[in-house]
Every structure is written in C-alpha cells, then in structure tokens.
Write a structure and sequence with these properties.
The chain is α+β, with helices and mostly antiparallel strands and 485 residues long. It has two domains: 293 residues, 7 Propeller (Methylamine Dehydrogenase, Chain H); 169 residues, Potassium Channel Kv1.1, Chain A (2-Layer Sandwich), CATH 3.30.710.10. It is built from twelve helices and 30 strands. Strands 1-2-3-6 form a four-stranded antiparallel β-sheet, with no helix packed on it. Strands 12-13-14-15 form a four-stranded antiparallel β-sheet, with no helix packed on it. Helix 3 crosses helix 4 and helix 5 crosses helix 6. The protein is globular and about 70 Å long. The N and C termini lie far apart (68 Å).
C-alpha cells in the first residue's frame, strides 16, 4: 500500500510525525499508534451527502492498547476490535442502526473516543463488518450479529445469536453476510432478514468464503474458485490453483494462487475486470494477517481435540514412539513407548516433575491404564486425539493432564459434559466423585437438580443409597442457589 495516497495523513502536523498507521478504515479515516496509545483520525461517512460528527483531529481511544488487539474490522461509521483474549470492543457513531451493539451510549466522553463492550456470553475468535452491522464467530461455532444490514431492515441494537450450527468461517459485505459450517454448507443472510442455505455439489468441498453484495465467492479444497449469484455455483475461470480468498467487506475481492500470483476484482465478478500482480504484500495487508491470533484459554469442542497443522507440530508428531534419538522409555502394562525427554518436559507438567526428580532413563507406568497413558503421550507429541467416548478413560486422562497448560484437560471436561444426559448423569457424578474431579461433580450435580423429576424415574436413581442421594441433592441445590421442594 502506498501510504502517500492516504490523504488523511497529510492533515497531521509535525507533532504526529512519529505516529504509525495501524489500520486504514478508508481514504478518509485511520487508526494511529503514538506512544503506545491508539488514536482515531479522520471522518466516517454514513452516505455520500452526510459526514459523521467525529472531528478530523486525532482523538485518543480510551483505555485501549495495541498489544491487546489481534484483529480490526470497520463499517461506514463504526469499527470493531478483537482482543487476544477473545473480547470485543466497538467504537464510532452510535446511530439508529445499533452498530455498536449497545443501547443509547455516547461516542465521545471528555474528548476521548469511547470503547463499548457488547455483552457476549462466549469467547470471540473472528469478526467482520458490513456498512452498519457486525458479525462475530465464537469458539463454540455460533454466529452473533448486531446492527442492521440495510436501511429499514430489522435492527439489532444488542448481539443476537443467529445460528447454533458449527460454523468455522464468516464473511461480510456492505449489506450481506455469510458463514461456512463444518459440513460444507454456506449460510447466507441478506437484506430484510432473508436467510438461505447454499449447498455445494457433492464433488465440491468448500474451505473458504468471501461475501459480496451481488455474489458469494468460495474456494474449494481442490483449490478452485467458484461464484454464487443465486443459481448454481459457477466456476471462475482463472489460471492456476488457489490457496487463499478474502474480501475487504466493501465488494473488493482478492485471491492468491499457489504460484504466488495475486488476483483482485470488484463484485460482481466479470472475466474482463480481474487484475493480477505478484505483489503478495498487498494481500497480507488486505487480510490483516500480520495481527496475532486469538489466544484461547479453553476451546469448546465435542468431537475431537486438534490444532491447525504446522511444520513443527508435524515433525514432532513423527517422533512419537520412535527410537530415533529416543533417550527415555515409558513402561506400560502392555508394552513400551520410546520417548524424548525434551519433548515430554516441555509439554507436560507431570513428566517435567518426574524427569527433574530422577535421572533414570526409564519411567514405570505399569500400574496406570495403558490406553490412558498412550492417549496422553500421543497428545504430547501430536496435539490431537481421535474422539474418546469412554467416560472413565476421559476422567483418568483429565487426572493425568490437569496441571498442563495445553487444551487436553479442557477437552476431557467438555467431552463428558457433551455426553451427559438424564440416563447417565448420576453415574457420571459418581465416577467424577471417585476421581475427585470437582469440576465435573459440580456440573453433574447441577444437571441432576435441574432434571430431577426425569432422573428420579431412571434405574440408576433406584440404586443410590439414601446417604449418596442426600449428599448429591444437597450439593446440587447449594450450587444452583435453590431450595429443595
């Protein structure tokens, strides 16, 4: 990007020569960094004839620091920031569209631009903006929306949940938004709250989406681009295979080919209006990809526990149970795992303590369930596991991994929670109590209290002793702050 073209920078005096351009909202507005503090400078347009009330002199953004931000998105008169902890902040003009996600709050206070925090009951991992609305994706795969997609359309002044489907990608244009779910279906929201689902052909698996006001663009796992304009998916005839697709939410699109070419076009797509260049840096700025990722304290998943593949993780995974450079053996009841002290110590608090206290090249776990230990060591090396549906296995695995900083213990907890129902809640409570797992004991106890009428008809209920029942019910009602009937 040629920064000389951003006319907004030309209005600044010499006092702002050391300011750094962080995010260009438009040719008339930008976010600047100065002395580790963020400032807004410029004007926001709501339409061609109306200027926003924000002044052109730099305004400090109240209580906001760059090191906390991992992504920025913006609309006509508002911007949204995503922190590296998964929290949302909004600022700009709080007009009739409700685009800040809060009701009747000021934009400015004591000369500083005020940041609002819409109430969202989950950790947000991705955001995108249209002209007057925001889309947010949480770590449970749910999509949240606030604002309005079009004048006279329905207005959401507070975030609402649009879908409970497992969504993996979101995208927005000026007046439309789309989401891709795990099964490959694309969900499309348009003006006047119209909603539809787009099904790709059985031979196509969609991996990325980019939403425009006229068309929707998709990238498949076969590295091909397609366009959806209301009928079937039509192939985009561009040379080469593609690995990236993005949009600036203002009907401009970009795609990167495997051989490094960069293609960009305006919506709607026409074969004659595609430009190409080898300047890959443009795409990085376009996609905001230089921002760090969201750091999730826990990841809600019920099907599998996995991390995105990368070269280091892949290479470490190849060393699992390999005798190459192995310097320690883990003895199990049914065999031996060849391991590496540096990997075990770096990724496991349990092994770090054992290796610090002993210089032996053998660790004996023959008294521990061998399948549990194999799962634990597998995760240490690969950061992934196949789905586990045995509750005792999950509880034992949690007990081994509970002190580690990775997501394995969270996975165990969430798997048991996802399996809990009226028929097994009592059994899961007793199993959790056996392993002294207070997190699951509390969850199961509250579940029992809330579903007591149905649970009282199960066979498991009839096997409880009066003492066990009294302790469980007392514990559950205490947690829910309710009184037994």
């Amino acid at each position: 990007i040629n920064l000389d073209k951003w006319c907004i920078l030309s209005i600044l005096n010499k006092d702002w020569e050391d300011a750094e351009l962080i995010y260009a909202i438009s040719g008339e507005a930008a976010l600047l960094l100065r002395n580790k503090e963020l400032y807004f400078v410029g004007k926001w347009f709501s339409d061609a004839n109306k200027l926003s009330i924000l002044p052109t002199l730099p305004i400090k953004i109240e209580n906001l620091h760059l090191e906390d931000i991992c992504f920025i998105a913006s609309g006509n008169e508002h911007a949204v920031i995503l922190s590296n902890k998964g929290f949302i902040g909004t600022f700009g003009v709080n007009n009739e569209f409700g685009q800040l996600g809060v009701v009747d709050d000021n934009c400015l206070i004591d000369g500083e631009l005020l940041v609002h925090h819409p109430i969202l009951p989950a950790i947000i991992v991705d955001i995108c903006c249209g002209n007057n609305f925001t889309f947010a994706l949480d770590n449970n795969g749910k999509v949240w929306c606030w604002g309005s997609m079009k004048i006279k359309n329905e207005v959401y002044k507070k975030p609402i949940c649009l879908t409970y489907t497992e969504i993996v990608k979101i995208s927005a244009s000026a007046r439309r938004a789309a989401a891709l779910d795990q099964s490959g279906k694309v969900h499309l929201w348009t003006s006047y709250s119209r909603y539809s689902i787009i099904y790709a052909l059985d031979s196509l698996v969609v991996q990325q989406i980019a939403c425009g006001d006229a068309s929707l663009y998709v990238l498949t796992t076969e590295n091909k681009l397609f366009c959806y304009g209301g009928g079937p998916l039509n192939p985009i005839e561009l040379d080469g295979q593609f690995n990236y697709l993005t949009t600036n939410s203002n009907n401009k699109f970009a795609a990167r080919s495997n051989d490094g070419l960069f293609f960009h076009w305006d919506d709607p797509y026409r074969s004659g209006n595609v430009c190409r260049t080898k300047t890959r840096n443009i795409l990085e700025c376009f996609a905001n990809s230089k921002m760090p990722a969201v750091c999730l304290p826990r990841k809600e998943e019920s099907a599998s526990v996995s991390e995105e593949d990368n070269t280091l993780t892949t290479n470490i995974a190849k060393l699992y149970n390999s005798q190459n450079f192995s310097d320690i053996e883990i003895i199990l009841s049914d065999g031996t795992i060849h391991a590496h002290k540096c990997i075990l110590a770096a990724r496991s608090e349990l092994f770090s303590r054992l290796l610090t206290s002993s210089k032996s090249n053998v660790i004996n776990f023959s008294n521990v369930n061998s399948n549990v230990m194999k799962s634990y060591v597998t995760y240490i090396y690969t950061e992934s596991l196949p789905e586990i549906d045995n509750v005792d296995h999950l509880l034992e695995l949690y007990d081994v991994a509970k002190d580690d900083s990775n997501k394995l213990s969270d996975y165990c907890i969430e798997q048991v929670r996802s399996f809990t129902n009226v028929q097994n809640a009592l059994a899961y409570y007793l199993a959790s109590a056996k392993f002294k797992n207070t997190v699951l004991m509390e969850y199961c106890a509250k579940f029992v209290v809330k579903n007591l009428e149905q649970i009282a008809t199960t066979e498991q209920y009839k096997t409880l002793s009066p003492k066990e029942f009294q302790e469980l019910i007392g514990f559950g009602f205490k947690l829910t702050n309710e009184k037994p009937a």
